[in-house]
Design a protein that fits this description.
Layout lengths: L1 H26 L2 H7 L9 H11 L8 E4 L2 H4 L14 E3 L7 H13 L6 E5 L11 H10 L6 H13 L2 H15 L13 E5 L2 E4 L14 E2 L3 H16 L3 E6 L7 E2 L10 E3 L20 H19 L1
Parallel strand pairs: 1-2, 1-3, 3-7, 6-8, 7-9
Antiparallel strand pairs: 4-5
Length: 309
């Protein structure tokens, strides 16, 4: 029995070395690393977005409006539309990023020196889930340039929230690999989008010629999402920041009732945008084309400015 325990101890001691040797070997052949460990992608602009924010340095203090949410936000809201109104914005949205993941990212941004006067949360109803989504969590961990300090904590918390234990492992060792310079971001460009700065991605898909067939969906806002939203509101209040909600425009809007935890927060309903029912502004039932996003952002910006001031 003692011999068994000695062998087990030796195995456990050598296991990290074995993993390290395997990772080192895979790093010599990047396609193998991407396939078997963590494949990077430019889809959604997460690397470009986080690298730009990192490069801002102390200039982050001059960003008055931060956006959080999903793809209806990062390819639908261009923060530069705020500039004619004397405001500067930045978009922290990513694919399938729900409210609980947005909460962790907001807390990291505030802890890292952001001092916005307003935080805009895109509340796309299809993502009113109970948990963070592993898609957005893994996207930030694998593709993001923000991976230390409060950002590291946000990635681990969101991965745990999503039940993505491998995401926790990736969040733990990828920053060290990047620090050695052996893991540069080299994913090919997004073939269907152009990163235009401030976190915004302009989509190049062709516009719809006619509205799609729409299902009859009823959405409810779950209690856990309310708890995350209330935590965001409290954190914003502690920083003197206004939290406001943005319901994105959709060609197939779901039926929903405004939950009680929204009652004290300003809400901008994208369905009130005059172009919300025009299929030529969309490339599917809820994502805007580059032209549609430009028109929507010009409509949205004055309302954000009015609430912010």
């Amino acid at each position: 029995m003692q011999r068994f325990y000695r062998r087990l101890l030796v195995f456990l001691l050598l296991l990290p070395l074995g993993w390290g040797l395997m990772l080192g070997a895979l790093l010599w052949h990047r396609p193998s690393f991407d396939r078997w460990v963590a494949g990077s992608t430019s889809w959604g602009g997460t690397h470009a977005r986080t690298a730009e924010w990192q490069a801002l340095g102390e200039a982050r203090d001059g960003v008055q409006v931060l956006f959080f949410g999903s793809s209806t936000c990062y390819s639908g809201i261009d923060p530069d539309a705020l500039q004619p109104l004397g405001l500067r914005g930045f978009n922290f949205c990513s694919s399938s990023q729900g409210i609980r993941h947005s909460r962790y990212l907001l807390e990291a941004a505030l802890a890292s020196g952001a001092r916005p006067s307003a935080v805009c949360l895109d509340v796309y109803p299809a993502l009113w889930g109970e948990r963070a989504a592993s898609e957005s969590t893994r996207d930030w961990i694998v593709n993001g340039a923000l991976d230390r300090g409060a950002w590291f904590g946000a990635h681990v918390r969101s991965a745990l929230d999503a039940g993505d234990l491998y995401g926790v492992v990736l969040a733990s060792f990828l920053p060290a690999l990047r620090a050695t310079g052996r893991l540069p971001f080299d994913a090919p460009p997004d073939a269907n989008g152009t990163y235009e700065g401030a976190g915004f991605v302009a989509r190049s898909y062709p516009a719809l010629a006619a509205p799609p067939a729409c299902p009859d969906d009823l959405r409810t806002f779950p209690p856990d999402a309310c708890a995350a939203l209330e935590a965001m509101a409290q954190r914003c209040a502690a920083h003197g920041t206004q939290l406001l909600l943005i319901h994105p425009p959709q060609l197939c809007p779901e039926t929903w009732v405004r939950p009680a935890c929204w009652q004290d927060l300003p809400l901008i309903d994208g369905l009130a945008w005059p172009g919300a029912s025009d299929p030529s502004h969309y490339y599917d039932d809820h994502h805007l084309t580059a032209a549609g996003a430009a028109a929507y952002s010009r409509w949205l910006a004055p309302q954000i400015a009015q609430i912010t001031r």
